[in-house]
C-alpha cells in the first residue's frame, strides 16, 4: 500500500492516535505497545532547535521491535486524513526532524523515551508540521507462526514559530441546504501561517433584525491553507422556521485581531410550496 494513497477517515476531531493494520498474521505478541503523548508541540523560530519526548512501552509478554519514521499528513475539507511521503507538503517539517532512537527492541514491560528534535532552518517562518509513524514487528519473524499483525500509532508534530503572529482566516462559502429544519454548510479557510483553533456562532434573523434562532459552532482546529467545512443543523421540530424571509449571519473567532463574518438571505416557503434549491453566497 503506497503512502500517497493511504487515507484514514477522521473518527475524532483531533485524532492523534491511529491504529492501522499493515500486514495480517496470528502472533498474539504484537499490538501491545503503547505510545504517549500522541501529539508533540515544539516551539522554535528560524535558526533555533527545540526538542520533546515520547514514551513507548511494550505491554506484552514477548519482546518486540519498534520502528519510527516521519511522514507528512494532510486533512481534506471533508475531514479525511491523508498520510503522505516526507517532504510532499509545503510546510513539512520532516527534513528538520530527528528521532533518537529511531529503531529499537523492547523486552516485556520495558519502556523507552524517544527524543524528537527539530531544527528550523534560517528564513523559515510560520508553523510547520509532520507525523511520526510507530510500528512494531516480531524480534524473530522467522519464528512467528500463523498470521502476524504489525500495528502502529501516529503522533502529530507541530513546530510552532513564536516569532510569527500571522493568524488569518476567511469564510469562503455559506449555503442553506434545508429550511425545515434549518441546515447550513459553511466553508472556512485558514489563510495565515499559524495553526489556529476557531469557534463561532450562526444567527438567523428576520427582516426586522430580530434573532429567531442561534447555533453555536464548537471549536475546531485548522492548519495554514486548510479548508474546513462546517455543518450547522437544527435537529428539533421547534428549531424550524415559519415561512418568510430571513438572513443568516455567521461569525467566527480564530484568535486573530478581529472576528470574521459571512452570511446570506434565504426564504422559508409556505407549507405545500416546493422548498427552494440550495441557497449560497
Structure class:
mainly beta
Biggest pleated-sheet summary: 8 strands, mixed
What percentage of residues falls in helices of 4 or more residues? under 10%
CATH topology of the largest domain: Immunoglobulin-like
Architecture of the largest domain in CATH?
Sandwich
- Helix and strand element order: EEEEEEEEEEEEEEEEEEEE
Global morphology: elongated
Parts with pLDDT < 50 across at least 5 consecutive residues: 1-30
Task: Write down how many β-strands occur, each being a DSSP E stretch of 2 or more residues.
Answer: 20
Q: State the fourth-level CATH superfamily of the largest domain.
A: Immunoglobulins
How many helices? The count is 0
State the CATH class of the largest domain. Answer: Mainly Beta
**Total separate domains:** 2
Rounded radius of gyration (Å):
24 Å
Strand content: over 45%
Mean pLDDT value: 83
Gap between N and C termini, in Å? 41 Å
Secondary-structure map:
Layout: E1 7-8, E2 20-21, E3 33-36, E4 39-43, E5 49-58, E6 64-75, E7 81-84, E8 97-100, E9 103-106, E10 111-119, E11 128-138, E12 151-160, E13 169-179, E14 182-190, E15 196-206, E16 211-222, E17 227-233, E18 244-253, E19 260-268, E20 279-280
In words, what does this structure look like?
The chain is mainly β. It has two domains: 158 residues, Immunoglobulins (Immunoglobulin-like); 112 residues, Immunoglobulin-like. Helices cover 0% and strands 53% of the residues. Strands 1, 2, 4, 6, 7, 9, 11 and 12 form an eight-stranded mixed β-sheet that branches. The N terminus is likely disordered.
Amino acid at each position: 500500500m503506497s503512502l500517497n494513497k493511504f487515507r484514514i477517515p477522521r473518527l475524532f476531531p483531533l485524532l492523534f492516535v491511529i491504529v492501522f493494520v499493515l500486514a495480517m498474521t496470528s502472533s498474539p505478541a504484537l499490538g501491545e505497545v503503547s505510545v504517549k503523548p500522541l501529539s508533540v508541540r515544539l516551539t522554535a523560530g528560524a535558526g533555533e532547535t527545540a526538542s520533546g519526548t515520547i514514551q513507548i512501552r511494550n505491554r506484552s509478554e514477548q519482546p518486540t521491535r519498534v520502528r519510527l519514521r516521519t511522514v507528512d499528513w494532510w486533512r481534506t475539507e471533508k475531514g479525511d486524513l491523508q498520510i503522505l511521503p516526507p517532504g510532499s507538503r509545503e510546510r513539512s517539517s520532516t527534513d528538520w526532524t530527528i528521532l533518537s532512537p529511531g529503531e529499537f527492541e523492547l523486552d516485556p514491560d520495558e519502556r523507552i523515551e524517544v527524543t524528537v528534535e527539530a531544527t528550523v532552518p534560517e528564513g523559515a517562518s510560520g508553523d510547520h508540521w509532520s507525523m511520526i509513524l510507530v510500528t512494531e514487528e516480531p524480534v524473530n519473524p522467522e519464528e512467528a507462526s500463523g498470521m502476524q499483525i504489525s500495528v502502529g500509532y501516529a503522533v502529530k508534530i507541530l513546530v510552532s514559530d513564536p516569532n510569527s503572529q500571522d493568524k488569518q482566516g476567511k469564510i469562503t462559502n455559506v449555503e442553506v441546504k434545508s429550511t425545515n429544519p434549518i441546515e447550513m454548510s459553511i466553508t472556512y479557510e485558514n489563510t495565515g501561517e499559524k495553526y489556529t483553533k476557531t469557534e463561532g456562532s450562526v444567527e438567523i434573523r428576520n427582516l426586522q433584525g430580530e434573532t429567531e434562532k442561534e447555533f453555536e459552532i464548537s471549536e475546531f482546529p485548522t492548519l495554514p491553507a486548510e479548508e474546513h467545512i462546517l455543518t450547522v443543523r437544527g435537529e428539533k421540530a421547534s428549531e424550524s422556521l415559519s415561512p418568510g424571509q430571513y438572513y443568516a449571519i455567521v461569525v467566527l473567532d480564530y484568535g486573530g485581531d478581529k472576528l470574521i463574518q459571512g452570511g446570506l438571505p434565504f426564504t422559508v416557503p409556505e407549507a405545500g410550496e416546493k422548498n427552494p434549491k440550495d441557497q449560497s453566497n
